[in-house]
Sequence to fold (188 residues):
Amino acid sequence: MSLKSPIYEKNTLEFVTVALEFCALIEKAPEHTLFSFTDKAVKILPLLYVKATLLPETEATDEECEPENFITEDTYEAIQHRIATLFGEYDSFLDTFHPDMNYSDTPVAATISESLADVYQDIGDFAALFRRENEEVMTQALSVCKNSFRLYWGQKLLNALKALHVVRFNEELSHDDEGGYLEGEDME
Fold:
């Protein structure tokens, strides 16, 4: 492959940079307060979405040669649990774009933690494959990630962002002088 390969395009490299920042935020969720995590998430998620929309077209991948998955079920569940613990009662939200809404008179509940874990699963696999520095694998990972964005994780990201916005700008939460939530405050 040459430098004209989609894996070397500016938009791909910018997506990789943002994807790595997103993965680091998700992996270090327990190190954050609710405010610091939410504040960073409402900034990184729009960037991730925009950068995904700008990814270059790639040749279709061979269905039989799907790239390796690195984010295991155990990893997914651990990530989801850590984020759920961080958000506590603020984890749940109503998903108005859930496919079951077409057949239901009642709202469908979703969680920030599951939505972010879903995005992390695809982005984490993409990042792990890109780190391999094998051009064929990188191109395949790019194609799979872009397709998965269109079909799945793009909507999950937007759903999570909408819920994160509500938490981030919740006036009922106690705030310190810098806008952060006060440690040890009862957030009911």
